[in-house]
Every structure is written in structure tokens, then in C-alpha cells.
Design goal:
Two copies of one chain form a homodimer.
Chain A lengths: L5 E5 L5 H11 L4 E4 L10 H4 L9 E4 L2 E4 L1 H11 L14 H24 L14 H12 L12 H15 L7 H11 L2 H19 L1
Parallel strand pairs in A: 1-2
Antiparallel strand pairs in A: 1-3, 3-4
Chain lengths: 210, 210
Amino acid sequence: MNDRPITLFHAPHTRSSGTLRLLEEMGVPYRLHVLDLAKGEHKRPDYLAINPMGKVPALRHGEAIVSEQGAIALYLGDLFPDTGLCPRPDDPLRADLLRWLFFYGDCVEPAVLQKAMGWEAPKASAAGYGSYEDTVAAVVGQLAKGPWFLGERFTVADGVWGSALTWLKKFGLIPATPEIAAYVERFAERPAAARVAAIDAELAAKQKGA
Amino acid sequence: MNDRPITLFHAPHTRSSGTLRLLEEMGVPYRLHVLDLAKGEHKRPDYLAINPMGKVPALRHGEAIVSEQGAIALYLGDLFPDTGLCPRPDDPLRADLLRWLFFYGDCVEPAVLQKAMGWEAPKASAAGYGSYEDTVAAVVGQLAKGPWFLGERFTVADGVWGSALTWLKKFGLIPATPEIAAYVERFAERPAAARVAAIDAELAAKQKGA
């Protein structure tokens, strides 16, 4: 499996930077296919054949294509078990890993969107996640187990959550509780953070100058 | 692993009916812990300790607890590989499985909610999924590969998608295109459909009479 090349379809300073960060954390080989969103390269037919939603990230591994951040994190984690970053199916942490990988997209993204847009739900049960407040409380409750999202071990879940909470906090879309602030800070201090910042800065400068 | 009991926290005629359907499709042993939503049993402390969001479904397997429909489908699929319903990590279908399991919660649920609530986004890129129309088009495009969600094989992805598209179509939240209508019909014709309908009818009657 691992001899097939991995390509990340990426645009600097977007959600795919989180997947780039995960690849850097894992220390596995990959190639970048960089898209210039300002030129609409993510909406052109060749990319829509990769991801019909016209979104980054997407990952190509040989013939296989994976999109959705949580799916990519899990796919990479299972592909490279030796990194130790992905609890295996027989690991007691596997249940938590799956639960929280799905929770991010199922609950946090839509709850934050609703809150940010000022959309009012007639009743809390209208949304599958309930409310923004319940969603944030669940996240803070989980982070209290720290230092990492699933507890003691840094895992692929941190690839998704570390990047997400970093931008949500930066844009004021999630409250900077002590648990969230400390987690985001710990995530920023890891060596891979600087590597990804440098890659993205270079790519963004290149696109700007193009 | 498989000697530990599996308990589904369930309320009849809710999203957890989809997980019940998956368990019936898999033919694996399970117990039901039935919650009466009218009595608010899903918001009581003992259940909030299982799922802080106060939602069904949740699954307990020994000490492990899984919530989020996609996570439960994947957890069960990996736990019972002999059912043949879950493409393994070395199967070319694994990428599609992960991608589409996440896609449901990442895109369909929030896009449908936005549409149903009549919430207007100032620009399509505000939501991670883009637009309701793009989301539906991606689903219809995938279903064209049929007869099942990932193509030839019935998989745990159908546990999530079959149940979801059934209720979305029933409530007019997704257009009944030929692809969607035919898929929902095929799903309804499987023997497990009748078993789940009978279980839910009995549970609902019991709760009503309680």
C-alpha cells in the first residue's frame, strides 16, 4: 500500500493547511498539488473530477481519492500505523478517535456556522447537534482530559482539532476558554507548526506574485 | 473484542433507527437501551454521561462508547469484519467508504438544515459544504454508480445513507430524483427493513401506553 504516492490537493492558509500539518506531524512522504483559489482553480473540471464539491483538502493515494478532513486523517492514520498516531481498531482509544473525528464535522462546523451567520433555530432540536452552547461545552469537557484531544497521546485527531480550534479561536468563532487557549498554544509550539507556516507563506507569496 | 456486549442507546423512529437497521443488517448480537424522549430521558444525567450532547444513537461496547452515526457505522464494521459489510483498510473501497461516511454529516445534514430553515448565506463559501445544490448533486452523482452507495457492494455506508435518504425524501428535504427514489426503494425492500419497523412500532406503542 505504502509504495503508492500520496498527493495532497492544497491551497495555502485554508482548511487543507490542517491536513498539511497532519502530514508533517506524521513525517510521511507526500507531494503537494497547489491550487490557486483566486484563479478559481478549485472549480475547474480537472479538479472537480477529484472532488465534485470543489473544495480542499483532497488526498490522492494511488487510484484512491479521499476528501473530508476527518476521513483523510483516519485514512492516513490507518495507512501508517507505525507513526503511532492512530489508535488501531483493537485499542480502547479507537472509539474516542472515531467519535471525535466525526463530531468535528457533524457538530462544530455547522454549529459555528449557525452562530457566525446569526441564524436562529426555532427550537434546539431542529439541528442534529442541538445548540452551539452544548457543542462548545462538549469540546471543552473533552479538552479537560488533555494535554491532547484524546488525552495523553497526540493522535491524528489532533491534526483535525488542533488546526480547527486554532482558526476558530483566531476568528473569535469559539470562546477562548482556558482549556481551548492552552490546547491551541500547545499545538502551536510543536515543530511541525513552523514547517507548515513556512510552506504556506512561500506558496501564498508565489501565488500573489504570479 | 467481540465477547464484550454491545448496547445501542435508542429511541424509536429517530436517527438511532438507522443504527438499529445497521445492526440488523449485520446480524450481530446487541442489546437495546430504549430512551423515552417525551419524558426527557435523553437529557438526564445518567444518559448525558454516555453522550454529553443528549442525543441518540450512542453505542456502548464494553467500556468503549461511540456516538455520531458515521463513527458507529465504522466502529461496528471494523469490529465485525466477517460480515463483509465494511471494506478493510487494504481494500480499494476504503477511501470511498471513509469519504462518504464523513460527507453525510459534514455536508448533507448542515446543507439540509440550512435549506429547511430558509437560512440565507451571504456567499456560498461561508459554509464548508458550499451549497445545498452542490451537495445534492454530489450525492446523486455517487448514487448513479449504484445499486448501493459505494457501487456493487452493500456496505455499512448504506446503513447511514439508506436510513438518511429515506427520511430526507419522506420529509421532502431532498429531491426525489430517479437515483434517490430507486435507492430508497431498494433499501426498503431488504428484509432488515421490516424487522426494524416492527421493533420500532412495538417500542413506540409501549412508550405511548406507559
